[in-house]
Specification:
The chain is α+β, with helices and mostly antiparallel strands. α7 crosses α8 and α7 packs across α9. It is globular. The chain has 9 helices and 13 strands. It folds into 3 domains: about 70 residues, no CATH class; about 100 residues, no CATH class; about 150 residues, no CATH class. It holds the Pfam family Peptidase_Mx.
């Protein structure tokens, strides 16, 4: 994530901010420009020369600070319009969970835009577009709880809103022995399945994929059953980025896809704060040096990313230990995992 400054007073603001605490300007993010725009308090429009923008319809509902070009029929921003189902808002906690999910999804869409990946056409080809449903568990008439499973099916990503509850998510993380479980991690993992369908399946990338990740034609249901009964095989850390990645070729790809997103976005953040070994410029709205005009998102070569990422994670782990926290980055990346990440790097940049 890059750094942002208020366009009115140059005070530092953050990606989620809808108002500048220094000058009280109303802030709005335009993904096509990767910029914050400002409007004076009380104004209902944002301007970029001849272009006029309006607030996303969810600005008041869940504090979405993204903008929509005026005249566009859809009242929702690029990110929010891809959510087809929201939880029952008669429950106050569901509104909070929905807001947290959408905030994480905006970070996902930020990366998708930076990579130049498409999200499909909701109007003309809705069944192949990227879509989201946020649902809560419900109580059936017989008193049993009907569970909502987080997952992906042909571009439709369903996420149980309980994942937005920090104590619940931590309980799941511990119960499943995961070193890491976050909302942005869920989003990045699930869209990995969507992009596998579009970038790997039925393309010339399929055979190279199988050589690296394994054969996806293995029975998925049986593979998951075996994984949940027996766990990951001994020594999995040398070949997979997580134990769940061992379950099936598809899950290995999705976990690696999510990890690649973690790395690139983490490096962009580090660059903007001068933590990647490059000397930062004085201004906030700078182009980070060392990669290209697009920063790590535009890196043509994969290895320089890893050469920057590995020492950064070592330093961050040491920082966390210095103040008594768990490791910032509880992963070890082998050459085998590097090869998987490099394959994904090639997929994304060939597509872009």
């Amino acid at each position: 994530m890059r750094r942002f400054a208020c366009p009115n007073c140059s005070n530092e603001v953050h990606f989620r901010n809808s108002e500048c605490v220094n000058c009280n300007s109303r802030l709005g993010y335009v993904p096509a420009w990767d910029q914050m725009f400002f409007a004076k308090p009380g104004d209902t429009q944002w301007h970029d020369g001849a272009t006029v923008y309006k607030a996303c319809a969810n600005r008041q509902e869940i504090f979405c600070n993204w903008l929509v070009e005026d005249g566009v029929e859809d009242e929702h921003c690029l990110s929010c319009r891809h959510t087809l189902v929201i939880p029952d808002l008669s429950s106050p906690e569901n509104r909070d969970h929905w807001a947290s999910l959408e905030e994480a999804k905006r970070r996902l869409f930020y990366s998708i835009q930076k990579f130049g990946l498409g999200v499909g056409d909701l109007v003309n080809a809705g069944d192949t577009a990227l879509r989201f449903e946020f649902k809560a568990d419900t109580l059936a008439p017989d008193g049993k709880t009907k569970r909502v499973l987080t997952g992906h099916e042909h571009g439709l990503i369903t996420i149980n809103v309980a994942e937005a509850d920090d104590p619940t998510r931590e309980k799941y993380r511990k119960a499943m022995g995961e070193p890491y479980r976050t909302l942005i991690g869920h989003f990045r993992h699930e869209v990995g399945h969507y992009y596998w369908d579009h970038l790997v399946w039925n393309t010339d990338k399929l055979e190279p994929y199988r050589a690296i990740f394994g054969d996806e034609r293995e029975d998925y249901g049986e593979a998951l059953k075996r994984h949940y009964e027996n766990g990951a095989p001994a020594g999995w850390e040398a070949t997979h980025v997580s134990s769940y990645a061992c379950a099936h070729s598809w899950e290995d790809f999705a976990e690696s896809w999510a990890h690649y997103f973690h790395i690139v976005d983490g490096l962009e953040t580090a660059g903007w704060y001068g933590l990647d070994g490059h000397t930062p410029d004085a201004g906030l709205n700078r182009t980070p040096g060392g990669w290209s005009d697009a920063g790590p998102y535009g890196a043509a070569e994969f290895r320089p990313l890893m050469d920057a990422w590995v020492p950064l994670t070592v330093a961050m782990n040491a920082m966390n230990r210095s103040i008594g926290l768990g490791d910032f980055y509880p992963f070890v990346l082998s050459d085998t995992i590097f090869a998987k990440l490099e394959f994904i790097h090639g997929l994304i940049h060939d597509r872009a």
